[in-house]
Predict the structure.
Amino acid sequence: MRWSKPWLWLPPQCAHDISPYGARTLGALSFSKVPPQWKPLKWKNLYFPNPLGIAGGVDKDGIGTPGWWRLGAGFCEVGTVTPAPQSANPKPRVSRDEETLALWNRLGFPSQGALKVKHRLEKLKRPYPGPLFVNIGKNRNTPLDEAHLDYEMLVQNFDHIADVFVINVSSPNTKGLRQLLDEKNLNQLLLRLQPQLKESGKPFLLKLSPDLSADDLKKVLDVSMKQGANGWVLTNTTLFRPPNSKFPETGGLSGAPLRERARNFLTQTLEHLGSEKKDHLVVAAGGVLYPEDVMDRLELGADLVQTYSALVYNGPYFFQQVNRWQQRPKTTSTLKNERPG
Ligand SMILES: Cc1cc2nc3c(=O)[nH]c(=O)nc-3n(C[C@H](O)[C@H](O)[C@H](O)COP(=O)(O)O)c2cc1C
């Protein structure tokens, strides 16, 4: 695999750090200035030229944003951004397993901080070629009962930049963060955030953990709907480990080992929402590695799809690959084999 994908020779952390710069450069060299149009979506006042975008964490500081659109992403997510700048957790913090197409990270929201990222994104040319999501998270030193102040500050700072906010309460790498998904805590957090979110006038999505039990998932969906959430991103990385996993017990696992869990989570979510889904936005992520995975999530009922792992194992031209794939002439045998085993 490595000869055709030279970035896999780089240490995983290095590849992660330079990929936004790579996107910026490759994007600048690209002939197309706008994302290709396929399965476009109109949602609220936003237009998604296609339903495939970059997941949170791919470009935490918004360094390569225009490049991702030029490479073909239908929408971009920047972040997780934290209010104050903070460094990553101690090493080791990023790893991959090429045999199982797995990724592991324990980064813990390294961020250049709200002000620097805001100033960078303010320079983007308007209108954006596709919607811009800003994923927000609390600083690791902010106590849980003050978390709402961090999210409030971020909404305030990015409300003129973001088309959509993604509230990240599901990373396993910030101590205690997932406690904000407990029914009572979530209710309180969203209640406290509501005035700021209303003032911003921007829709907000909640990014969920795939490690919630079926019952807790239902509670989270109900509470967030009651508190005005406009949708969900399903899912963040998992603490679950398949047998013989070579990764540490802590840290989040993603890529192929997350695929089935993320698919089930999506199905459970859509089943529970039923007719209540209405215009809530459901964004699928987790183990999307091939064009077939993108179509599979859309067929399961997701409105949009995001990927991190495909950019690692497939490369920066994944968006174009999916575009070409969905245009291919369909024969009976390709129709029978839409999803890889
Ligand atoms: C190295 C790395 C860093 C990540 N950082 C973030 C982040 O800052 N915020 C976030 O919401 N998700 C983050 N994620 C999770 C991804 O957005 C995504 O939800 C998850 O990796 C599942 O998608 P995948 O299987 O395509 O990798 C990160 C994932 C990886 C692998």
Observations:
- The pocket of flavin mononucleotide is lined by residues 16, 55-57, 60, 80, 94, 103, 105, 107, 109, 135, 168, 171, 207, 236-237, 254-255, 258, 285-288, 307-309 (CB under 6 Å).
- The chain has eleven helices and 13 strands.
- Residues 335-341 have pLDDT under 50 and may be disordered.
- Residues 194 and 228 are 8 Å apart (CA to CA).
